[in-house]
Amino acid sequence: MPLHAVLVSGPIGPDTIDLPGEPARLREAVQGLRDLTRQLGQVSEQLQQANPPQGSRGRTVLALSRGAQRAGTALEADARQLGELADSIEGAADALAQGQDGLDGLRQRWRAARQGLRQALQDAKGGPHDPGALIRRIDAHTAEPHDAQFRRQAGLSFTDGGGGAQAEAMLLEQGGALQQAIGEYRREVRGIVDEYADLMQQAKNADNDVDRRLPRRAEASLGAVRGDGSGEPSPEISSPEAVQSLGEQLLDAAKALGQAADRLEDIRLAIRAGRMLPEEDRVGSNNGFKRDWTEHFESVRESLTAGRRAADTAADRLRQADDDSAADIRQALRGH
Fold it and tell me: Taking the model in full, what pTM does it have?
């Protein structure tokens, strides 16, 4: 899909004013984020419910359970943060769509004002040979105070409109009806351009909120999936089956988290295409969003996978200890 160019092809006017960006693509990003947060919520709930069974709450099982719950809490915070980003992008999509809809009325008013001035210039004696050049000159001069805003916020740089300065000066010297018509047109264009700038500012304010929320914030620490509760006294012994079951739950969560991370690229591209950004800011934008979240999810996934491996090792050790103890008892009892 083509991106928006920095240079507008022509002077400012009803045919060139624009609010670049695609609300539909932003809403695609919102839907992708909603799906992602739902998936994270499911994984978080699964991990937070990883409780050891009664009668098998030894230290190994408790360590696995607490580690899983800690990871679930971290993912819950992630889902909340991504949900807030989705809300922000939805607000930006609404603001941009409202602004783009508002341009239609401004264009109609501008064309009507142009037609009125053009008719006055054509009807008057001594009018300019090129009314269009004079009109473009007035438009460009009236919009000049907003030029920096248009370039900075939307990457729009309008051409200067060409000549017309001499014709305007001569007509203003004549005074009368033409001077009044030019003054009325200038005031109307100033009001239109001011409204255009306001619409752009509103869209930019909403986009600024998106920009603030795009970087990932470290709200919760996963820690290592091994030990809360490691120092707690426990009269129970971890069963190999309970240890292995919790390990499988960690592995299932790690797989689901990998699938969730696969959504990030489509979300990033939709955000990039939809935002109101200058071209130089659009290219490569939001790379940090995908990078930071991918690295975070990979870190959590690796920790969960490591926890599962540790659970397998612990289960094997428990079984081996049980076998060794049974062999020792049999050997001892043979002598009696």
Answer: 0.84
